[in-house]
Amino acid sequence: MSNSDDLYPIAVLIDELKNEDVQARLESISRLTTISLALGPERTRSELLSFLQ
């Protein structure tokens, strides 16, 4: 799997978190645990948490 393929789920999440539709944002927030488990601790810290702050 290429690096861009690895980043695709994060890009989708970021787009959903920026969505003007509140329901879409809430649905993406509910998937944060699943995405962080898939990313692993290091990538969650370096990629996901930096976006959420």
Automatic annotation (TrEMBL):
InterPro entries reported for this sequence: ARM-like (IPR011989), ARM-type_fold (IPR016024), PP2A_Regulatory_Subunit_A (IPR051023)
SUPFAM superfamilies referenced in this protein's UniProt entry, alphabetically: ARM repeat
Keywords associated with the record: Repeat
GO MF: protein phosphatase regulator activity
Assigned GO CC terms: cytosol; nucleus; protein phosphatase type 2A complex
UniProt-listed PANTHER family: PROTEIN PHOSPHATASE 2 (FORMERLY 2A), REGULATORY SUBUNIT A, BETA ISOFORM-RELATED (PTHR10648:SF4), SERINE/THREONINE-PROTEIN PHOSPHATASE PP2A 65 KDA REGULATORY SUBUNIT (PTHR10648)
Protein name: Uncharacterized protein
Source species: Sphaeroforma arctica JP610
Organism taxonomic ancestry: Eukaryota, Ichthyosporea, Ichthyophonida, Sphaeroforma
